[in-house]
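hey all, quick one before standup. I had two proteins in the batch that finished overnight and I want to keep them in one place so we stop losing track of which output belongs to which input. First protein below, input sequence then structure tokens straight from the run.
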Amino acid sequence: MTTPLPVLWRLTSGHRLRYGVALGCLVLATVLNYGIPLVGTAVIDHALGDKPLAESSALIRWFVDLVGGSANLLAHLWVAPLVMVGLSVVAGGFNYVKGWFNSLASDGIARELKNRLYDHLNHLPASYHDRADTGDLVQRCTSDVETLRVFLATQIMEIAQALMLVVVALPMLWSLSPQLTGVAFALIGPIILYGYIYFRRVKHVFKQVDEAEGDLTTVVQENLTGIRVVRAFARHDFEKTKFAEPNTRFRDRHLHLLRLMAWYWSISDFVAMAQLGLVLLVGAHWVTTGAVTVGVLFAFLAFLGTMLWPVRQLGRILTDLGKTTVALTRIGAILDVPREPEPDPQPTDLPRVLTGAIAVRDLRFKHGSSETQALNGVSFDVKPGETLAILGPSGAGKSTLMHVLLRLYDYEQGSVQMDGRELSSLPRGWLRDQFGVVMQEPFLFSKSLRANLRLGRRDAPDQEIEDAARAASIHDTITLFDHGYETLVGERGVTLSGGQRQRLAIARALLKDAPLLILDDALSAVDAETESLIVKALRTRRGHATTLVIAHRLATLAPADRVLVLDEGRIVQVGTHAELAAQPGFYQRLWRIQTDVETDFAADLSATRS
């Protein structure tokens, strides 16, 4: 999306009929508006003056003949202003229809483009969102689309109106006086040339302003999202200073743009008024010499009053075209990013649900251009209904492994099979429907608790919702809220504690009742008693779903059928809790540390009570 005209043409698909109606109304309104001065010319030259009718243009002769000749027009002068008013009213009606259909088209295009952007962003790879700025994406989907909408709503018709100068006004003026027409268009060329040069110089400024606005939006979005962290660390002054820098940069760039626009409008105003003064000066001289009549000069001055606005608008059109070009480029940078690819051809014999068997062989993966392997030769098997625990230090590759299984990231080396089918051959949407997932950082939408729980299964009955909440030890907490399951949570679930958010996320995953369940450090924010209740509830579901558990508390991992220990992307230990606790290694060291801490804490607590 680099050339604006082809892009604009594609965007108007489905709305061209509306633009066609608007354009037709514009042509009719323009013809009628340009016809009004000709009525005045007929009155001045043929009713009040003595210019021979044969020397006037065909349109003036037609009008005079229509009203019964020059003498009849003089006897009924009231007809002329009545006709002028009538032409203005009819032209106004066409302008209204033009504006209505033009607005329908432009607003419809903006709506469709926003829907397209929103859908496209939801289908872009996770690697794109890893490096994208949320504030900048919001600015592109709102401010840049609005820039495009304004251009389509106003400047498209302005361009058409400027073209009417050549199609309608020029022939009319030429029929009245070829010499005065040359004078009337003498400075229009310089105005257009100046507007083009201005557009070329100011185009990069619009890009700088848009980028500065995107940076400003990013700072605001980050601050509002992390407002509690800001307050907890008393960083109000720091955040104020951090906001001041991009805010000042945006102001300076915007003021620079306004200065450039002020120069354009002041110079174009001077040239436009000079054009009007030139016609008046030369025309008055020619009136005294008899080269033109007073009526013709009146028509030219009236035409210029109508013409100079769209001519001056050419600079604004070019200015807005520059802004729109930048906006289209920024929007296109999103739309040009390829979506997550789907396997081709799609499997036609997919079962409704998987059994949950997983086979991983020599899996290797690295993030983007990183030279370090996040997963380096990982191999393991999981039987249907088995619970596999995954342990390891930070950065060992635990969450990356889960993301690969969900096809948030695609592997290039090795093999991952689900029920004997290669993971890369399975459709992403279908595959993700097979998983119930609790992410490391649970996310809740600003909706009711019930709506958040139904995220993965919208038709779940209330009784099953409550059963899943009980299994996640959150039901009793929900019943204490004033509105129960209809309680609205704040943005990102901010009105809930971290443990409550995690338990809701677990209940949401359990309610989905998928054949595979991923718990990515899902119990880190709950207390030990609640953790034991959740683990106990999960034990009752053993064999119901293949479960992959990532955790750092070994008490959470102990009930698992097997435990994998990852370190630097490699599997360094495999076995049951009892086996690994007896083997020298990372698991045994961590088990002793956690056991000693719990023993010391219990002893200190007992001593305090005594």
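OK second protein, same deal, sequence then tokens:
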Amino acid sequence: MTWGRWWKAINRVEAKLSALRAGLPGATLDSTVFRPATFIQRAIDQHGRALLLGVLLVILMLLAFLGHWRPTLVGVAAILSSLAAALLILHLRGETLNVMVLTGLAIAIGVLVDDAVVGVENITRRLRRARAEGDGRGPAAIVLDASLETHSVILFAALILLLAVVPVLFIEDVLGSFIRPLAVSYLLAVAASIVVALTVTPALSLLLLANAAPLRRGPALIPWLQRGYDRMLAWTVRRSGAIFAAAVVTALAGLAVLPLLRLSLLPSFKEPDLMIQLEAPSATSQPEMARITARIGREVEAIPGVRNFGAHFGRAVLGDQPVGINSATLWVSVDPSANYDATVAAVRQTLDGYPGVVHRVQTYTEESLRQVLTGSNDDMVVRLYGPDWPTLRRKAEDVRRAISGIAGVVGLHTERLVEAPQMEVEVDLARAERYGLTPGDVRRQAATLVNGIQAGSLYEGQKVFNVVVWSTPEARQSVTAIRNLLIDTPGGGHVRLADVADTRIAPALTSIHRESISDRIDVGFNVRGRDLGSVARDVRHALLSVEFPLEHRAVLLGEFEQRQEARQRTLIAAGVAVIGIFLLLQAAFRSWRLAALILLTWPAALAGGSLAALAGGGTLSLGSLAGFLAVAGLAARGGVMLIGHLQRLEEADGEPFGLGLVLRGSRERLAPILMTALGAGLVFVPFALSGNIPGFEILYPMAVVVLGGLATSTLVHLFVIPSLYARFGAGSAEPVLDLPPVAVAGPTGNA
């Protein structure tokens, strides 16, 4: 369902509820107790404001670097065209605009900005240089040459990005279905950006820039930045050993931080509507559940920050949840202006004051995701399989004791197997045979007399009454009366049920859970204060101390297990992708050495993201991983574009290899590098400054990682890669360190 149709449906429901109020005097209809639409609307509004602010900052940045509204308009139009094309393809595929699709598009923002910046900046610089040098060619030829100048490098960079996302497509099962829309939207946006960069950007540049007189003079900001950059780069190239050492230290720092980060793929969504599931002991009556629920409601409503409260227990006659009267669901709405974390903590503390009542405080989204990942409402589940129920019960208790002392495990409980008294009729085959009865005959007749069987229907006006064959109440009100029930024999006589079968009251399970043709029982728990990965490792170790009989086993389920199952396939696909990326780099640079060096700079480029993730909470969630993917894409593109530009200057423009080549090529790439970093970063600045508020559960950690990663990757592009090219760019060229100092020229001159 699209957003527009979904919102119209909500409005129709609200209208129907308003119409019902007139016909229900004395009844109160409150549709705000559980209303996820409020959270969604608020999140959309917050995202819209943050994106609008980010777009305005990007426009101001483009205007400052390009110096005129015309090239700025071309860049903005290219970015919006790429997004529009990706959204159109997603719409044609029947995709909905969900949080994973939006995250994929957010990852691609940096690539879209880079494609637009590279194309517009190169065309603008070429037009200005042609006018300054009196080039007699027409604007169309200059724009065409400028566009073709970078098309091969752009294609190589795009292929590298596509290969980087391939491992995501090999994640299967539920987790793969959850993440795959992110990868698809990212790939579509990157593909659309390539098409726009090769078609729309040159066309708009020719229309808006060909005869623009104000473009004769460039902005004053770029020459000022280039002069300072030339001095710093010349200093760093002559001290390349120290620069390489600093890059290695930075990379090691980023790698050392990774083990300190807690792994939690799915973020905790801060929805204002909490869903509390209660389960009291199986013998709890309806009046007692009403008393417990009402008392919890009074205490929860007294918590500062709680707006309203609602509850229901048991289930409706035609309800879809097979629960007993001892189960309840409570709905708590948190005031958007209240401290969310403090309010949720107070609600949990209140529920902890009811011993013997199992409770889970979570949002509807968290509950739905856990049901998909584990089939339970718990963070992790140890599921025991086996053919014998008494053995399963004993082993479940052994497992519970084994993991009860693990740090971070809270709410540990064994799945309750509710038993109820049941009448058992065991036919004596020898005695039944003397009367000509089969076991089936005895059981069917006894079940009909005790439980009844529908024989037809009676219609009276608009009413329908079932006609049921049943014994008299006196015949089924005690075990003795049931034993005296008369069973028809094939010869036309009767025999007492007690004469052909043993009848007794025995406990029986009200529901039996089976999976993979085996009975199963769960030991569930939640995780607090530790990451899922470390807790899962401790649980696995604890399970080794529990001995299981033949045909009995235990399996750990949960988000972490989903990730572990997908890890092997993903690592294999990632290894193949790295090899493919390395081959593409070699094809782009025509040098194995340069391809290997560029790959080795990626840990340093991504180190800032690791350090930022540690400073921003120390958790690796889906948003953080998406941020690393975004930075990795920009790091790959930046290195390819810079090395490709240096090689093009040497081959096409005849610039001799040396410090002058490195200074000139890096100087000309300074503006695109800074514009890409600032453009991608400014989009995420509003999300980072807003904090981890409701609605930003994915984009906030993503923004933190992107901003940190952009800082280190930009430094790598500006100083490390030029130093590497100066040292290793030519096979037997004279070392750059032995070259004499060169004078710094203007922004369009050569050194």
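Flagging for whoever picks this up: Confidence is low (pLDDT under 50) at residues 731-751. The radius of gyration is 35 Å.
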